[in-house]
Design goal:
two-stranded antiparallel ribbon, five-stranded mixed sheet
């Protein structure tokens, strides 16, 4: 990941904090799930499944982030409404989405849904894309972490 300059980019979270993915290198694995739009049915299912399995991720020492082009305020409202215990990141200009090479679906009408697991060394060990199997992203991330 260090070959990508945007890995070092600082973005705002739903908790109004600055987050840089590179700050976790050498400390903990990162589970990063890109979702199209806060509050939509598929994104709500996905976010809630990550919420429900959050303890499994933390037992492996992983941090979890959801990321979309929603504003920090929209993500904060979504996180509060769904009782999410992990931060949602705002990539309003879609720079990280482009850096990770996430393609749009449905002829460009819908932002892609993709999950990555990045190990402690900063290496991507899992990439999973499935627009319509939102809850499968959690299962695949857990498998990548050995759960």
């Amino acid at each position: 990941m260090e070959d990508y300059p945007d890995y070092y980019r600082v973005i705002r979270s739903s908790e109004n904090k600055a987050v840089s993915l590179s700050s976790y290198k050498g400390k903990s694995p990162v589970v990063l799930f890109f979702y199209p739009k806060a509050g939509t049915p598929g994104c709500t299912k996905e976010a809630c499944k990550f919420r429900d399995e959050y303890a499994s991720f933390t037992k492996k020492g992983a941090v979890v982030f959801g990321i979309s082009s929603d504003t920090p305020e929209e993500n904060a409202a979504f996180a509060k409404e769904q009782n999410l215990q992990y931060p949602l990141l705002s990539d309003q200009s879609s720079i990280l989405r482009k850096t990770f090479g996430i393609k749009s679906d449905l002829f460009g009408m819908l932002a892609g849904r993709q999950t990555y697991v990045i190990d402690k060394s900063g290496k991507v060990i899992m990439s999973f894309n499935d627009q319509f199997g939102a809850e499968k992203h959690v299962d695949e991330a857990l498998k990548a972490l050995g759960l």
